[in-house]
Amino acid sequence: MTNQLPDLRTGEQRLRGLVGDILTEAKKQGADAAEVSVSEDVGFGVTVRMRELESVEFNHDRGFGITVYFGQRKGSASTSDSSTEAIRETVRAAANIARHTQEDPAAGLADADRMATDLRDLDLYHPWSVDADEARELALTCEDAGLEHDPRIRNSDGASVSTQQSCRVYGNSHGFIGSYLGSRHSLSCVLIATDDAGMQRDYWYSTSRVPGRLEAAKAVGLEAARRTVARLSPRRVRTGTFPVLFSAQTAGGIAGHLLGAISGGALYRKASFLLDSLGEKVAADHLTLAEDPHLLQGLGSATFDGEGVATTPKAFIDRGVVSSYLLSSYSARKLGMATTGNAGGVYNLTVSGRTVPASGLLSELGTGLLVTDLMGQGVNAVTGDYSRGAAGFWVENGEIAHPVDEITIASNLKDMLNRVVCLGDDLDTRGNIRSPSMLIEQMTLAGS
Amino acid sequence: MDNNLIDQARNQLLSPAGIEQSDVDHLIGRLMGSDVDLGELFFQHQRHESWSLEDGIVKDGAFSVDKGVGVRAVAGEKTGFAYAEDIMLPSLTAATEAARSITRQGQSGRLPTPFRLDVPARYGADDPISSLDDAAKVAILNQVDAEARAQDPRVKEVNVRLAASHESVLVIASDGTLAADVRPLVRLDVSVIVEENGRRERGSAGAGGRYDLQRLTGGDQPGALAREAVRTALVNLSAEDAPAGPMTVVLGPGWPGVLLHEAVGHGLEGDFNRKGASAFSNRVGEQVASSLCTVVDDGTLDGRRGSLTIDDEGTQTQATVLIEEGILRGYMQDKQNARLMGVSATGNGRRQSYAHAPMPRMTNTFMRPGNHDPEEIIASVDDGIYAVNFGGGQVDITSGRFVFSATEAYRIHRGRIGAPIRGATLIGNGPEVMTRISMVGNDLELDRGVGVCGKDGQSVPVGVGQPSLKIDEVVVGGTSTG
After folding, report:
1. ipTM of this predicted structure
2. Which residues of A touch B244 (CB under 8 A)?
3. What domains appear along chain A, each with residue ranges and CATH number?
4. CA-nearest residue of chain A to B101?
């Protein structure tokens, strides 16, 4: 069971060449401007369950997307086929669409003078030489550590090892072309524990661009086990208003809702609860959300955004005040502003503010709810109304009293953001939005 | 199955690459190590087109083509899976070698004679993308925009999207399966933002199914969707804070059937039950819902979004009774889980595309109607809420805990519908909530055809439906504790 992945480095020049060919074809078919994204992803994942191999899945994806502009009219097309004939047909399909779309004054490439020129290497590509057999052994070690941890863990939804490599190339008719190679590896474990009150599941995972930086397989399995067992025999709590502490794993979601509300697309569509908020105070005066796109080995690192514009380190929320929106050149034009280099979102966003050692967070909470899991999509981006299913732990006088399940927490995001009391020093760095635990002064809990 | 459909799929998917039946037989033979139960090739070609309008102009359109082959070897509980993004013999061979890596290397197995299914198609085979010309598509978007804006001066933003896709699949497997399907899918979505005295609210409506754009946009459907989106947005402009805590909840017919999808649907998928990971595991024959509840998953309904002539493993779809008068009758199965549980596949083996391995998934899941008039149900409630529209939902199948979020709901006081309330999440435990269903309406409706279900990172189109029904107690996640 061995299967080594190809090295994408050898393919990068070919993909850059492909971008050039597609742009040439667009010009030949009469487009005034065009932009092309090409990607190639390769990897595999191995899952074991109850100490047996469950699945081995190999993936290899290639594809390109083109957007053409005829004056202010636009059309897009994409395909997984990069043959000469497919390129011609795909460009033709995009051009056909542009014949029927209507003039949009804001349409077009980002301005040429905003194209990134500093395309430094951010150290994002670290292929893992693991083969499927070794990956299986690692997954078995991970799951076994979890299964052995507690007799109440009698079932498992499996442990997985995954390794992925990608190459992304973007080019446009300004002459800009940029590419980067990246890797991402992960190790995860989902366990099921049972007691007289029923079954509960929980999980843990580790992810990194660098194989050597993954948490040890045993540690991932053990943490999954601890979290799963801790949820057994949950109770509801009484309905009322209480302080709520979001764990680092759940607090990133609140930052995400805030960033969504100051994103260009939501703002120009008036689909945000933070319209006209630039320069306004929207959150507690200690809270800062800033991005660092050039972080070496960062999961969200990039030197240029989705339209070739240079990325720059900056704050979006600076001590509670909106200091920058997240704009692409399109949404910027709609708002009469300039792009912030955020076509495609944020790049390594970190939440910071008044920080308390994680060990002291429960006493800061006092009596209230520690949330470790959220369910559902009950967030209204237009009004900020927030109502989601939650699970976690009831805390009495700074001590965990019992697990909690089947309750909702509700408020409005405007109130929640202004009522952030403090953060923990336990930053979760496993994603593009990196948040520590976040204590919110008060929300409505609905339970029994 | 119409033999022409199989020949048509072969001509489209295999002939261009010069792939012969003998090549396919050889590949499946390579998959068949001594311990392998199933070797399968899934060929797919899909075209997709969408048009979108905002700020009163049709500003974007996109077209995509995707084709490839998924190769799978199943041995007991083990699955090996790989795919090729082009339909060419060398990449197909490489994917086959990767997929068989789970098997003990041995000689190739012997293949049974393929059998052709004779299955009535659940929809037409014509390409919906070309069922209207591009100028007509643009005109429909503009018509919806105009209709929405004409409804009320408080309408500030209108977004409209029209999408169509056409998919051909061919499934060839070591169990003799030789099946093909050609699937149309269309949808039209409208979303509006209304504003009054600085307060803004969103409303949306959509419809779709497995038919062409003529049918989707015929009659007054585009105008009706525009009016519905505006109506829901205006209702929410005057919404009051939702209550918090356990309450009696009446659900309207149709789309609120997302309740069933979350509360019981996922928990009755075969894979979770084979693994003993579901709150419904090992409970066939037991009472899991009130005796008023009969829940069915039916992939055979004509033209429905969740319908399929065959599933993605080549099994004919069927109507599967999951819960009959409250008693759990069975699970939804794909081939692998059916074999491991010693039951028959139910035509629920689905996959997002050739690049994903199939698993048990819902098709159209709904509750059969009961005896009560909906007015009677509302009149029976002294204090509660009436929820008629929902966003999404989610379930933890192991504990049975599920949520779904109301986007249009009203208070009920003394048997009468009162003021609208703000969107709120409802949370409960599937097996518990189902036993608290105390009245079922005679007004079964299926949703308009916009459902997307996600599982293990794979999205597939589904349908939901139900009559009006009353749940004696479920937790409502509002902000008002007064």
Report:
1. 0.94
2. 239, 408, 410, 444-446
3. 9-230 (3.30.2290.10), 234-448 (no CATH)
4. A1
